[in-house]
């Protein structure tokens, strides 16, 4: 054999040898070191089933569960396993057509790919589940049933507090660094969202062996690799579900909000937003449809007005304005202002609802009768305080007080999306009126009676009552009192709710004066007809101007007077005087909470108030046009039946003067202050641009 041929053969042999060695090494590696193909093979023989945990339960202050867990089933689809499927059969069970079926399959592929299970239909109806359970073998392995716990709400209340749970999407997966998986549910609003890490629990996994026909024949390795689902932990809250139900009932067919706080702890007793909705509507297989129309609803039932709504506080601000003036040494409790029905010191008369002589003779009477002129003057004294050398500096100091009281900033409640509302900055007035050297208190005059650009949330208003009730401090408003098996980290999370917020050094005697004036409101003032059986209380009515319609009705209060256990704020939109609508509602809430019941007379009043329809006509029209009238359910009420209530309310506000009270108010105290009012008049030589 020629040497050349022999050499060529050796090269060929060497090539085959090297290839054989490489192949052998590769096979050895795949068998001993790599699990990739093992896993692929395992995936064909073993079924991985997620076991979803029960979410934690939320209890009210009396230990009653205000939401519970029930079981439901999702129909899951594996797109790669749909060969030979009886499409018509499954469509008949689900009551969908073929095009809808195809759209869902395409959506599942787009969302999760062909090789991962996706939810084809969530929260199956009882009828669909029974039929699928009996016939699932016809649709396997492409379809299978997945057990899942869902929420139920036995009281059908507290939707805005509790929030709702929904399936995670791609954006949530990215935000959580893929901690969640496709098919997981999480809290999307309310306490469900705020306390998600505590409530969610930990999912488990169950591995099951499949035969060559993809049928489950047993557990893999006798459950060696299974993991048990761990239920979420429970929350104990400060909510009183009875008060919550009553509050929501009072807001039926109305726009507005109610917040009740225990001033001793900051625990929120009730928080209602009107309109609300039955939280059960956002569970089950109709969740998507219900959520869709709620988003379109012009009454905005998903919008929590208690923490997001911004309202001019109106006269409910006056006790705080008085505290500022007292603390700054601008007035004494005996300071008086002669009011004859209007305030004209700024050249643009501002109406006062009262004309009777002496109703502004001192601070207590001014609070009792809600004298606009008195508090406009007091506000101007604070802004034009010579101690601060300019109106701008005086306003900055006034704004500091307001921020300290909890206005114009978030309080830090344990709910997402709290609104801070607005205490206007000097920059806004500089923009409107030019150089601050040339504007004075007249430029933002109506801030003194809670108007202008000042807004507050109902939560902030209720908290301000807790602040006055406690004579200078409050606890950050919150719902959760304790967490089951609370960790050190969770205790640190709750620490701000358990820490006293001492925000001012206003002397106690000034709070005493304010409290006495607010008590007079309930004795002979604007809320004299609103009684809480067995208890004295303090209150302030308010009527806030609304540029979009009828005035808003406001009422703030706390009770009992000398040992406050509840502070309440009520706002009813487009309802008129504060004592007409908001006041009676606040009185009923205090009575129910303090006495644990309502008298027969109060029950009748509650029934009447619940029937009153104050929804704007435009919203009613939307409900009719969209076939949602059943959710509005307007009830025609008879004014004659409620005439006694209306007459007393109008009399209390000074609108009706044909009736007299059984008891006359105390005689006005003499004005002992010698404040020079002339010094507070605007400088006519300066730019004059009054705020309307």
How would you characterize this protein structure?
This protein has three domains: 48-67 and 153-204 and 227-237, Penicillin-binding protein 2a (Domain 2) (Alpha-Beta Complex); 72-149, Penicillin-binding protein 2a (Domain 2) (Alpha-Beta Complex); 241-680, Beta-lactamase. 36% of the residues lie in helices and 15% in strands. Strands 12-11-20-19-18 form a five-stranded antiparallel sheet, sandwiched between helices. Strand 8 (204-210) and strand 9 (216-219) form a beta hairpin. The protein starts with a helix and ends in a 40-residue tail after the last helix.
Give the gist of this structure.
The chain has 692 residues and is an alpha+beta fold. It has 25 helices and 20 strands.
Feature tags:
692 residues, alpha+beta, Penicillin-binding protein 2a (Domain 2), Beta-lactamase, 3 domains, 5-stranded antiparallel β-sheet, 3-stranded antiparallel β-sheet, 25 helices, 20 strands, 15% strand, disordered C terminus
The tally of beta strands, per DSSP, is: 20
Q: Write out the strand line-up for the largest beta sheet, numbering strands in chain order.
A: 12-11-20-19-18
Taking the sheet with the most strands, its summary is: 5 strands, antiparallel
User: Could you name the CATH class of the largest domain?
Assistant: Alpha Beta
Strand content: 5-15%
Query: What's the architecture of the largest domain, going by CATH?
Result: 3-Layer(aba) Sandwich
Mean of all residue-level pLDDT scores: 83
Distance between the termini: 116 Å
Counted by DSSP, the helix tally is: 25
Q: What does the radius of gyration come to?
A: 34 Å
At the fold tier of CATH, the topology name of the largest domain is Beta-lactamase
> What sort of overall outline do the alpha carbons produce when their principal axes are compared?
elongated
Strand pairing plus helix content: what structural class? alpha+beta
Helix share bin = 25-40%
């Amino acid at each position: 054999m020629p040497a050349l041929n022999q050499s060529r053969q050796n090269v060929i042999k060497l090539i085959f040898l090297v290839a054989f060695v490489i192949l052998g090494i590769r096979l050895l590696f795949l068998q001993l070191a790599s699990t990739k193909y093992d896993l692929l093979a395992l995936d064909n023989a073993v079924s991985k089933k997620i076991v979803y945990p029960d979410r934690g339960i939320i209890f009210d202050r009396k230990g009653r569960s205000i939401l519970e867990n029930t079981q439901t089933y999702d129909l899951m689809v594996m797109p790669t396993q749909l060969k030979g499927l009886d499409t018509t059969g499954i469509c008949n069970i689900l009551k969908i057509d073929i095009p809808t079926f195809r759209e869902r399959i395409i959506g599942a592929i787009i969302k999760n790919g062909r090789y991962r299970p996706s939810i084809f239909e969530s929260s199956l109806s009882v009828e669909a589940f029974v039929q699928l359970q009996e016939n699932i073998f016809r649709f396997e392995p492409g379809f299978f049933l997945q057990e899942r716990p869902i929420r139920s709400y036995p009281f059908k209340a507290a939707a805005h507090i509790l929030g709702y749970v929904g399936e995670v999407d791609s954006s949530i997966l990215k935000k959580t660094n893929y901690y969640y998986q496709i098919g997981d549910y999480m809290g999307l609003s309310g306490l469900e969202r705020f306390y998600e890490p505590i409530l969610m629990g930990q999912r488990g996994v169950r591995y099951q062996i499949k035969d060559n026909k993809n049928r489950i024949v047993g557990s893999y390795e006798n459950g060696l690799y299974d993991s048990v689902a761990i239920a979420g932990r429970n929350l104990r809250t400060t909510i009183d579900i009875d008060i919550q139900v009553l509050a929501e009932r009072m807001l039926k067919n109305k726009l507005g909000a109610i917040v009740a706080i225990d001033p001793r702890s900051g625990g929120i007793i009730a928080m209602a937003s009107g309109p609300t909705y039955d939280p059960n509507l956002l569970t089950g297989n109709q969740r998507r449809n219900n959520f869709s129309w709620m988003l379109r609803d012009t009454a905005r039932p998903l919008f929590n007005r208690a923490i997001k709504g911004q309202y001019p506080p109106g006269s409910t601000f006056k006790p705080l304005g008085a505290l500022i003036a007292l603390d700054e040494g601008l007035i004494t409790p005996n300071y008086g202002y002669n009011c004859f029905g209007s305030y004209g010191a700024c050249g643009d008369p501002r109406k006062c609802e009262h004309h009777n002589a002496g109703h502004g003779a001192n601070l207590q009477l001014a609070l009792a009768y809600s004298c606009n002129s008195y508090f406009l003057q007091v506000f101007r004294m604070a802004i034009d305080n010579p101690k601060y050398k300019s109106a701008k500096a005086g306003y900055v100091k006034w704004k500091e007080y307001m921020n300290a009281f909890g206005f114009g900033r978030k309080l830090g409640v344990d709910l997402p999306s709290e609104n801070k509302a607005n205490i206007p900055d000097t920059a806004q007035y500089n923009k409107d009126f030019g150089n601050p050297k040339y504007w004075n208190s007249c430029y933002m005059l109506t801030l003194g009676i809670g108007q202008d650009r000042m807004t507050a949330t109902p939560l902030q208003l209720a908290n301000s009552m807790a602040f006055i009730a406690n004579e200078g401090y409050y606890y950050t408003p919150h719902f959760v009192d304790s967490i089951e098996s609370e960790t050190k980290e969770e205790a640190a999370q709750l620490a701000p709710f358990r820490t006293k917020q001492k925000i001012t050094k206003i002397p106690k005697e000034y709070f005493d004066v304010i409290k006495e004036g607010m008590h007079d409101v309930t004795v002979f003032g604007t809320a004299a007809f609103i009684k809480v059986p067995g208890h004295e209380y303090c209150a302030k009515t308010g009527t806030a101007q609304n540029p979009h319609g009828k005035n808003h009705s406001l009422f703030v209060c706390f009770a009992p007077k000398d040992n406050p256990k509840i502070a309440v704020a009520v706002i009813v939109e487009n309802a008129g005087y504060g004592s007409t609508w908001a006041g009676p509602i606040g009185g009923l809430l205090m009575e129910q909470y303090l006495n644990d019941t309502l008298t027969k007379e109060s029950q009748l009043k509650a029934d009447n108030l619940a029937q009153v329809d104050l929804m704007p006509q435009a919203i009613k029209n939307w409900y009719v046009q969209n076939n949602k009238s059943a959710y509005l359910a307007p009830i025609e009420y008879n004014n004659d039946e409620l005439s006694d209530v209306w007459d007393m309310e109008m009399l209390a506000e000074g609108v009706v003067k044909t009736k007299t009270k059984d008891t006359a108010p105390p005689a006005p105290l003499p004005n002992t202050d010698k404040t020079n009012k002339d010094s507070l008049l605007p400088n006519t030589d300066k730019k004059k641009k009054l705020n309307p």
